[in-house]
Specification:
The complex is a heterodimer. Chain A is α+β, with helices and mostly antiparallel strands. Chain A has two helices and six strands; from the N terminus they run βαββββαβ. Helices cover about 70% and strands about 0% of the residues of chain B. The chains are: A alpha+beta, B mainly alpha.
């Protein structure tokens, strides 16, 4: 089974600055998490996204672009920050793996992948 | 009982007792809940058709196991040949390899070769896993209730719909959606690591079913309603066996039995609700109280405290007090304080405040009640505020609170009780 884990959180403005020991520590936690996924055979893909205020949303109507707006699809306090695509035996394992994400405070949505052409 | 009636009784028993047992075994062996459920339903329909004609088999449970297993393998073979046809017709359209049917056929072999394991411990394990699956936290509360009644209590969708006063199509859709999520998201039928947490959700679900029967919503003319209280008790007793007599499950049984013992005393001649302190205690069911006392004693001997045991202890103080005046309110206040520390719930805090009012006087209780948040839409909050104000001699404060409670309640007996209270305050 493959699952997409998307993480939603309030954009942090006071995160550690690059180059500081705190930043190193944070990156270390993410690297360790990624390595854990790779070593366990769970890794498929993943990415951290640039802030939501850099997003552009377009609207297609019957295949024709009818709208282009500045900003993310949903203007909510919590924003999509990144995603993982993982392999897991079942939902319980996916929940367990997602729970270890060093994301601090966030809501993680776990969705089964229905079809992936390159799988 | 005529032969015809005997078969009807046996068929109901088959659906409610043997059906869920066979379902849990097949779901575990095939790793496919839908397939197992469909197969059991097929076999139950077969029984309804053939038993009245051919007579009952000597071992109904064994008959159902064989019939449902055959139905499941039939379905798998049909699916396999369909996917073969699909595979050959789609070969030119997609390059991607269509999964072969080898997996499905291997499963058939597995099941055909497996002994009919009747080791009760293993069967019990499968049934517990099915119960836990129905109450997986990834499923919504409504879905958990519907699934456990449908798959573990063996009730029909129509019976569950009638019990919850929703159209059968709504209930059917709820169950289909839940089963689809289990399949699509691959929710496993496995023994979870955090068993106690998962058991807690299961116990909450059973208590919800019990309470729905205890305090029915919108039950005006008593339409054909299933005995949800006894279904909840049946499932709780089953879970006691399956969970190795877990003290919290025993605690839940005691809670339910203490509550049920008052069934006959809870409503008056005009079908209005009668409060605990005004009930005729001689009509309380002693058999229920004795069984509850025994279950609670067994639970407490295990020395693993938990919220259901504390709630059962509170219930036992009420059930074992011969008069309302004899109630040991200071002890109940102490128990609510314990419960408050275990469970973060404004409803428990409300009950704590009411107990304090009974022990120390209404003004002490009111002070606590007024500090509570998140209960504005809870009818029992407003009736508690009203009663405490009555006790404190402030009927001008009580009347609007009773009115608010009346506007919020969905239970007819409570509505009659509140109307009566308002009339008394005039």
């Amino acid at each position: 089974m493959e699952y997409m884990i998307t993480n939603y959180r309030e954009p942090s403005t006071d995160g550690p600055a690059p180059g500081t020991p705190e930043f190193q520590e944070m990156m270390g936690a993410w690297m360790a998490y990624n390595q854990m996924l790779i070593d366990g055979g769970h890794w498929v893909s993943g990415a951290s996204l640039a802030p939501a205020d850099t997003a552009t949303t377009i609207v297609l109507t019957d295949g024709t672009r009818t709208g282009t707006t500045d900003g993310p699809f949903a203007e909510t306090k919590e924003q999509l920050g990144g995603y993982y695509l993982i392999k897991a035996d079942d939902l319980d394992q996916a929940i367990e793996l997602a729970s270890k994400m060093p994301v601090g405070t966030a809501s993680l949505e776990i969705r089964p992948v229905a079809f992936r052409p390159d799988a | 009982m005529s032969a015809h009636e005997a078969i009807d009784v046996a068929l109901t028993r088959l659906a409610r007792e043997d059906g869920p047992r066979v379902l849990s075994v097949l779901a575990s062996r095939f790793g496919d809940l839908d397939l197992a459920d469909d197969a059991v339903q097929d076999a139950l329909v077969d029984a309804t058709r053939t038993w009245p004609r051919d007579g009952m088999p000597g071992n109904p449970g064994g008959w159902l196991m064989t019939a449902a297993r055959n139905r499941a393998t039939d379905r798998l073979r049909r699916q396999a040949s369909t996917s073969r046809r699909l595979a050959s017709s789609q070969a030119e359209l997609v390059e991607r390899r269509i999964p072969s049917d080898a997996g499905g056929l291997a499963m058939i072999d597995n099941v055909d070769n497996a002994d009919d394991r009747d080791d009760p411990s293993e069967l019990g394990d499968e049934r517990l896993r099915l119960m836990l699956l129905c109450c997986h936290p990834a499923l919504g509360g409504d879905a958990q209730v519907a699934l456990i009644l449908r798959l573990v209590a063996g009730l029909t969708t129509e019976e569950i719909a009638a019990a919850f006063l929703v159209p059968p199509s709504t209930m059917a859709q709820r169950i289909v959606r839940a089963k689809r999520k289990i399949r699509t998201a691959a929710i496993p039928m496995s023994m979870p690591d955090g068993l106690d947490d998962r058991l807690g959700i299961l116990l909450d679900t059973l208590y919800l079913v019990f309470n729905e029967g205890y305090l029915a919503h919108g039950d005006e003319q008593k339409p054909i309603r299933l005995e949800l209280m006894s279904e909840a008790l049946r499932l709780t007793r089953l879970l006691i066996e399956l969970s190795d007599r877990h003290p919290e499950v025993l605690g839940l049984l005691a809670m339910e039995l203490f509550a049920r013992s008052r069934t006959g005393a809870r409503t008056g001649a005009e079908n209005e609700l009668i409060l605990l302190e005004d009930q005729d205690r001689t009509t309380w069911d002693l058999a229920d109280i004795h069984e509850a006392n025994a279950a609670l004693a067994e639970a407490m001997a295990r020395m693993q405290p938990g919220p259901r045991q504390v709630q059962a202890l509170i219930g036992s103080h009420h059930a074992n007090a011969r008069t309302a005046e004899e109630t040991d309110w200071p002890a109940i206040v102490g128990l609510y304080a314990q419960l408050d520390a275990m469970v973060d719930s404004p409803v428990i805090a409300l009950n704590h405040a009411v107990a304090v009012a009974m022990a120390d006087g209404p003004l002490h209780g009111l002070r606590l009640v007024e500090g509570l948040e998140g209960l504005d839409d809870y009818h029992l909050y407003w009736s508690a505020v009203a009663e405490l104000n009555v006790r404190a001699g402030r009927s001008d404060e009580a009347i609007p609170a009773f009115e608010r409670s009346l506007a919020l309640t969905t239970n007819e007996a409570e509505r009659r009780h509140l109307t009566k209270r308002l009339a008394e305050l005039g």
